[in-house]
Design brief:
The radius of gyration is 18 Å and the shape is globular. By secondary structure, the chain is of the alpha/beta class. Helix 1 runs parallel beside helix 2.
Length: 131
Amino acid sequence: MRPTLFAVSYAGLWGQASLTLEDFVAHARRRGFDAIEIMGKRPHLSPLDWDQARLQALAALCADQGVEVVCVASYTNWLAGASAAEVPLVEVQIMWRRSLGRPQRSRTLSYASVPRTTEPTSQQRSSGPAP
């Protein structure tokens, strides 16, 4: 497990401290984190506000600080493509991830991070069917 600081905690959405994404990177490093998760919406990483040059500057800042972006929380309605095919939701997420550093397989910060088996474990067999 890798301790990761999530930018949503510093978005000011619920009355807490509000930091820009650039300030958040430095803050995470000062707190001893070398991995961060970025909130992929305003006020942090909205596709309405970020262009390629700004993404490259953020990637350089992260590299200078020794902080790796391990996750971008996309807040994307992946099913919207059915009703809004003209909106490049998936493409924007891929572009962000590539711009912010080496894409990697991530098993952290996802609902599918727990290894699954096709056979029930002995505990599952003894406790009966799942709810």
